[in-house]
Amino acid sequence: MLFFAVSPMNILPKVQIVYKKQFPKTFANDVAGWGFSKEELIANKGKVLSLDIDFGNYCSLNCPHCFRRNNKVDFGKHKLMGYKDIVALIEDAKKLGLKSVKFLGAGEPFENKRFLEFLRFLKKSKITPLIFTKGHVIGDDELVKKYYSDYGISTGRQLVKELKKLGAGILLGFNSFDTEIQDKMVGGVKGYSLKRNRALELLAEAGFNKPNPTRLALIATPLTKSNYKGAFDIYKWARQRNLYTIICPTMVSGRCAKEWAWHKITPSRKKLVDLYARIYKFNIEKGIQSLKQIKEEGISPYAGATPCHQIACGMYVTLTGTVLRCPGDDVTVFGSVWKEPLEQIWKKSENCKRAGTFNCGCPPKAGKSIPENFYSEVMKKLEKT
Ligand code: SF4
Ligand code: SF4
């Protein structure tokens, strides 16, 4: 039984529970296509298994924490990657072993008329797309018509059906059940939360959260002072519905590049340790992970999720063709696809040197958005409980 902070604004999407009590022994703590097992990482050592990319830069929302606005790498005048450039990038990366692509930004990918065309290209190329989205297009038939009527798609339900056919994984932004807090967190867009809820319901209805590993995740980042209170409730609610869940404080980049801006919105260290420990305790109680496994794998920057190995098997290529260590880091630049072939950039990158590592920690967050000794403090607290 879940208890939620009483608020008249809490509107829970209607999604059926998948795991009522214990999680099955075979449960995969991941979203299909995101993480790789230790064995896969070792067997594919030196390959670019995953790329984070930008696709377009339009977004009708205005999140105060947006990590893609005021981003250092986007400052100034740059040649932007067009559709053909991104296709060429994927073809190059495919030769280096590419298996999945995560759409990071720089805007909302669904607010781009060529998005489905690109997903169809990925399907033909046998590459799994994982899409970070706020869900407001999927949850609004008028917006679906606006962007997808050329494909003969005019409702969210039809769009979701097509996404399923294309093998997409959906990483849905979800900061709060509270519609007032949530609408505020996307820039004060009234009615946003209800569209997001509808998107989640449509995706669940289409079975995105049925397989193991799931194809549907809730991205409850950034964890801020305003949504901290409901974060654990979101975690429990989502996990029981087989929705992989990402909870983490915001990165010190984009609009939060200044440390004071980060401090202003981020909960205290004690609160972060408490939340992470509660989440791992829940994982142990439900059989999502064992304590032995957590000790072996280490605490993840994303509370309760698979440790991050993105910086041992991938890179982030922004819309300007700049290649970065990862999305959480807008200062470590590996190169530019306009100047060097991707293979050359990869081979001399520090990420390539880490190839085969399962838990890389999170260098961009270490000592910044994840305080010093944070993971060991979480582990100590967990062992005491
Ligand atoms: S939806 Fe994404 S791109 Fe749009 S403002 Fe929010 S964080 Fe930025
Ligand atoms: S290293 Fe950190 S910031 Fe980079 S992708 Fe992994 S968790 Fe995110």
What brief labels describe this structure?
385 residues, alpha/beta, TIM Barrel, 15 helices
Order of helices and strands: HEHEHEHHEHHEHEHHHHEEEHHH
Helix content: 25-40%
- Backbone structural class: alpha/beta
* Subunit organisation of the chains: single chain
Give the CATH topology.
TIM Barrel
Describe the protein:
The protein is of the alpha/beta class and 385 residues long. The chain is built from 15 helices and nine strands. The chain has a single domain, classed as Aldolase class I (TIM Barrel, Alpha-Beta Barrel). The chain has a nine-stranded mixed β-sheet. The mean pLDDT is 91. Bound molecules: iron/sulfur cluster (2 copies). The site of one iron/sulfur cluster has 10 residues, from helix 12. The site of one iron/sulfur cluster has 12 residues, from loops.
Summarize the structure.
With 385 residues, the chain is α/β, with parallel strands linked by helices. The protein has 15 helices and nine strands. One iron/sulfur cluster (SF4) is lined by residues 301, 308, 310-311, 326-328, 362, 364-365.
